[in-house]
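Hey, quick one: can you model this chain's 3D structure?
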Amino acid sequence: MIYTTQTTQTFKTVKNELEAKAKKIGFDVLDSYSFKEKLYGKNFPIEKDIIIFELCNPFITQQALTHFAEISVFLPCCISIYEEDGQTVLSTMGIKDLLDTAEVDDGFQTYMTIIFENLKRVMHSWDTASAVLEDSHHISTLEAIS
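Sure thing. Here's the predicted structure for all 146 residues.
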């Protein structure tokens, strides 16, 4: 239920660029925070710096909450970044896997599939082969349902 990808870009680069890349794909960053800093402040230190970015597409969120209020426990969408074995790792919930366990209609499935595809576009926007994604038009919910 977790979708993960890696990049050779530095942790610092991904951390500094994620908000701009997310915005290009239609997401607002509601918040970001470091688990390392939060836990250190509560006297539970960890070694690995893990940054969480909370992302929101207001239109999709409105549709999701209107059709399936229970999904609110999974919102906002989060992308975590951290380093492992010399790579920067990006992870998020596998929304498709989550939807497979819920009873939702086809329209709602479509909305959430689009948001997951766009989350993956953000996560892969540092891939050399995915440079085209950054310049291409993101999947628009309005286009998909018209």
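One thing worth noting: Residues 2-145 form a domain with the TATA-Binding Protein fold (CATH 3.30.310.70).
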